[in-house]
Specification:
Radius of gyration: 33 Å
Structural class: alpha+beta
Oligomer: single chain
Distance between the termini: 61 Å
Helix content: 25-40%
CATH superfamily of the largest domain: PPM-type phosphatase domain
Number of strands: 28
Number of domains: 3
Mean pLDDT: 78
Largest sheet: 6 strands, antiparallel
Strand content: 25-35%
Strand order of the largest sheet: 3-2-13-12-9-10
Amino acid sequence: MHEGNGNESVLEVTRPGRAPEMVAVSQTPFLIGRGADTGNHLMLEDPRISRRCAAILHADEGYLLEDRGNGHGVWVNGRRIAKKILVDGDSIEFGVDDSPRIVFRQHAEKQEVDSVLTRLGTLPLPEPSFGSGRLSKLNLLLEATSLLHSSLPLDSVLGSMLDHAMFITSADRALLLEPDAEGTLKVRLARGSGGAVLGPESLTPSQTALKQALAKRAAVITDDLNLADLSLKGAQSVVIQGLRSVVAIPLYTSANAGNENDAPTEETHLLGMLYLDSRHTSAFSNLDRQILDALGVQAASILDNARHVEREREQRRMEQELSIGREIQQGLLPQGLRDFPHLEVSGIQFPCLAVGGDYFDVFPLSETRTAFLIADVAGKGLGAALVTTMLQGALSGMLLEVSPEKVFNHVNQFLCKHAAVGRYATMFFATVDADGTLEYLYGGHPAPLLIRDGKVNDLYTDGSFPVGLVEVAQFEAKRVHLQHNDVLVLFTDGIVEADNLKKELYGFERLRDVLERNALGSIESLQKAVLDSVADFARGAAQADDITVLIVKYRVPAS
């Protein structure tokens, strides 16, 4: 594995509706894709992007981008690629509208410094000086900019930013405020003269200055409060503390990038406030004011990046928990389905998310009687997965020789009485005896398809309520007799409702056609034919629902 270094390249990732974030290419291969279950280093939430999407590899010429199987391809600067050596500024996209966009940056720190220099390019050149001149202040700003990619703890970086701001303004104290859950600005960090750390609880910034900066959505910089407007000059906190100069700079997300004058818009998000004050008047030059503005931009960028990093960590934590949930759910499915004396069985499940709402099971009730079932809980994801686990526990009661009808109706009553759960399920449950007697119950589930002598027919045609939807519903068992080599194909609606890029549905007719063309093969080959057919039909479209197939073949036991 190639490890990154202090001059590592970064990816500028822009997701729809979110501010750009910088992600370091910290190692190679650097994996890009949807979800964390395949070890992705950059996770993209768009369901149209493949789990194994792309990878960045280390090559002699630099970094190599490689398409690892994204359904819509990987595109660089508007051209589809299989492999490409990345150069600074390359734009990477994934073949669908409104998807995340990535810009490759060769050297992270150089990009940020160049950006600040461009921002200050129109300022008059400072006279050479040492220690406290204008050149010193510009150097200080560049030093603050370099903190953006520092490995120091966040509060250390923010504290250094406050120290830089105090040096530029000769302020007595500097505060960084952040909004709480109700939007009220609270002091996060505070510095006094000489870098002293101040206790946030003892500080009373000028609320009038803060409100003015928020109302204007721009900096309030007052170097002599005696010349300020009456509302600010007469503010209680200003008078009591004897303040003579105040600076309040609101910090916004960078979603305003590209707007004229770089002014915050209604869509931007308030990150916090940089506040400084002093008991002495100050003389802020035009350069000082512009440096303060640039410093505010850097502070906002640090806060914004920190917010995205925290969100990314939380997302990774959730992904890890969902991955554990997936392992548990998959562990509860029947593993290595064995053939029973009178049955051959094959089944498979593909959740569209980390965990799913589909469920199937096969288990013996006695030496001559076997039960099998399939269920589809309304919805997807974690909530549906929890209900499937509950269903499995309830249905396992049949192993205690409880009547299937009683269990089925009990589950319906339980879900209806707990309506706050907001879930119901379609379900098919059956038992088959060695003599071929099939006893079954169903609740709103698509009818299993019966293959007999190469022909395909529905096991039943009348409908019923899903389990957990109507409390007064009663479910009664029905019986049919299976013949030797009869095959039952059970499935969830993720099969027939799979769609393609044209938004067409796979449908029942295509499923019947595939089953008839492969009716004489083994149940394993039959299952593969169904899955391949659905995959070919939906190629390029994201999986929108859980997919589950269970195939049961009856055999007359040898005498």
